[in-house]
Structure formats: C-alpha cells, structure tokens
Design goal:
The chain is rod-shaped, with a radius of gyration of 27 Å. The protein has two domains: 41 residues, no CATH class; 35 residues. The protein contains three helices and no strands. The chain has 77 residues and is mainly α.
Length: 77
C-alpha cells in the first residue's frame, strides 16, 4: 500500500523551500552561475530616470506628431 503525504511534493521540493533555503544553490553548477558568472537581480523592472525621460520624450513626440498630422489633414484638406 502506498502512503500519501500531501504536505510534500515530488522530490521534497516544497519542504526544502519552506525551510528558508530559497537562495541556497542546490548544486555546484548553480553556485558557479551565481558566484562567477553573476546572477540577475530583479529590481522590479524599473528603469533609471534619464532613460525614462528619453522614452517619454520619444513616445510623446511621436504621438504629438501623429495628432498634429490628423488635425492638419482634417483642416487643410
């Protein structure tokens, strides 16, 4: 007869994660990736302010040119 334990998923991954070991590498390859090659850090997808301002300027001017084009086409046609 097979005993079913609903608290642990296959391989015991859930119990490993519940012990607070979320950032501990589980093998040498992952440790190498984190320490030597670098591990990407998520900062919430925020861009630096100068890049944001450039984006606002480019998209805003593009939208403004399209709007002026439509208005000009209606008025002068």
């Amino acid at each position: 007869m097979v005993k079913e334990d609903y608290g642990i998923s296959i391989g015991g991954c859930e119990s490993f994660m519940n012990k607070g070991n979320q950032h501990k590498p589980f093998n040498d390859a992952i440790a190498h990736k984190q320490n030597i090659e670098g591990y990407p850090k998520a900062n919430g997808g925020k861009l630096p302010l100068p890049i944001k301002l450039i984006g606002y300027f480019l998209f805003g001017s593009f939208f403004l040119m399209i709007l002026i084009g439509f208005i000009g086409n209606i008025l002068f046609n």
